[in-house]
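Sorry to interrupt, but I need a hand with the structure work. Please put the record directly below this note.
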Amino acid sequence: MEKIISISGPKRTWFELWIKLRVAFYFTGLLFKGELKRPYYFRVLKRLLFFLSKMNLNKFIKTSLGTKINLYVPSFPRKAFFNACRKVMEFNEKMPSITVLMSVTSACRYNCEHCYQKLDKGKDVDIDLLVDAAHKLQDMGVAFFNIEGGEPFLQYDRLRKLCAAIDDRSEILINSTGDGMTLERLEELKKRGNLLGIMFSLHTFDAERLNAFMKSPNAWSNLQNGISLCHRAGIDVTFNSCLTREDYYNGNFEKVMETAKEAGATIIQFIKPKAAGGWLESGAQKFSPDDLAHIRRKMIDYNTLGKYRDYTAIAAMIIDEDADHFGCTAGGTDRFYINAKGDVQPCEFLNISFGNIAEEKFEIIYKRMRKVYETPGTCWLCEKHAAKIAEILKRTGQNILPLSPGHSAEIYSEVAESPVPDFYDKVVKM
């Protein structure tokens, strides 16, 4: 088992001071080089101090690339980290997105009941189009690429080509089940120096339950083999976990955390069940405000209390996306999705398309989407629009997601303003 190292107590105070000094030094350099105008210098630093204050509920965790203060913020003090910091240099337009999720293939030998790609049908887009989009996104300021499938290792040549196109201005995290993974492939991907790790699905601590949930007799064995290969290659293990409401009351959450710790995972992202893909029509399980408060408290405890210091750091979606933090950042406020067919979507959980990069230039589609979601909101768009998406799917007799751009317009034309989340409400005024 790999030892999990977190930064807490007085060390964290000093570490935050070190971050502030390094950031100040970096932007001072930009000031002297003429890349940052003098009137904006202190405003940029003030914005970044405010962002750092929003990390107070996160566990700072050591990774193979540096230190993570947030799942979607590249490791400090890598070049990609400072590239992400440049987001707040924008004062005249909407600040750039720094995160993208890209699917390299829909190929997968699993049949997970909750999969948000359940109805994504069609041929994988030409990989060169995804590579071209990646180049453009790096130039636009994207500093964190989350790459997935299907199962990306089943189409390794596509995965390798996309990763090779992403230079050290950005950090890469790859989602995988472990199916098709080999030590040689991991070592090849690691050579470029910007691969943070592999993110596996850990929806339960029990092998039989995981196999049943992912509809594969090999799900648990592939997971364990993948974890072992990552440790041998010196690549960080991370997890995502979609738990039911009951799991946060019956002790299963705690057992999943024990499993993550035993696996030496640096980060585990907890995802609230979403009404998307396989769960679009049936709807995701409902969580009451009391449920969310209960879950929030558990996750904060694991990230902040001394007795959990040696546990995996939690990336809590329900905290990052609440009104006191960043809200729903879909649509290019801070993240968006390009599926394996080339559809540009606001989020992987929002099954609508603004266009396809095989039919239209990426930058045109991207600009169209960003205009619709120009103002950040606190409303979780995937939950707000799920019923309407399901209705359109049924009315049109189609069985393919995301909705076509034409039908998708029925969804985003109704986007109503919601309260702006605290970070974006205040940061633009600084």
